[in-house]
Write a structure and sequence with these properties.
63% helix; mainly alpha; two-stranded antiparallel sheet; 10 helices; 2 strands; 207 residues
Length: 207
């Protein structure tokens, strides 16, 4: 049976004209069940296809840990694949996102350059979005952003990669001093002093 899945995600900047004002909504079609037919990750896989592919991995019951590791490792080799994986993994109903398995951690560790900046940006953006939703009285959405931040911080801790720590320090410095490599990134989304302070604080914990 085909299931229409509406996936709201605050961390996809290419799909959002103003991340401060709301979430992007993506319509994803997936197949429920154990016998899912899907295309393997390719170098020209679209962002939407990567989300859908990750969703198929979530509902499959036949994958051994080594197979899951191989699937994720292949998926995150490309920019679209890595972004799509994190959208689904961090915002979806994956138990493994709250308690990531060794297979998932090893897959991410195998591609440090593909995931380092994404993890740090995801943590920064979800932290800032939680504040935006709280101000607007959207407590359910604030809780969702907080869950993404918590999951991302846990992944950063578990993968324990120098590439991630280096970018976290750069992002933190930009948030504190309004200079550096990620000054333009923070300005692009219009983060104010409170949001920048929150970003700096959460990156202190993870770095």
């Amino acid at each position: 049976m085909l299931v229409r899945r509406l996936l709201k995600h605050p961390l996809n900047p290419e799909r959002i004209s103003n991340i401060q004002s709301g979430n992007a909504i993506l319509n994803i079609w997936i197949t429920d069940g154990n016998n899912i037919k899907s295309n393997k990750p390719t170098t020209n896989m679209t962002f939407e296809a990567a989300i859908a592919y990750t969703e198929t991995l979530r509902v499959r019951k036949d994958l051994e840990a080594s197979q899951l590791k191989s699937e994720i490792e292949a998926l995150i080799k490309t920019s679209n694949g890595a972004r799509g994986f994190f959208v689904s993994f961090l915002t979806g109903e994956w138990e493994l996102a709250d308690i990531p398995s060794e297979a998932i951690i090893q897959a991410l560790q195998a591609e440090p350059n593909a995931i380092a900046e994404l993890l740090v940006k995801n943590l920064a953006m979800s932290t800032a979005m939680a504040i935006t939703h709280q101000r607007n009285g959207n407590l359910e959405q604030a809780h969702g952003s907080e869950r993404v931040a918590k999951r991302t911080a846990l992944l950063i801790e578990k993968v324990d990669l120098p590439e991630v720590r280096a970018i976290a320090v750069q992002m933190q410095n930009s948030a504190i001093f309004n200079t550096g490599d990620y000054k333009a990134f923070l300005e692009k989304w219009g983060y104010d002093a409170e949001q920048k302070q929150a970003i700096a604080n959460v990156l202190t914990i993870t770095s």
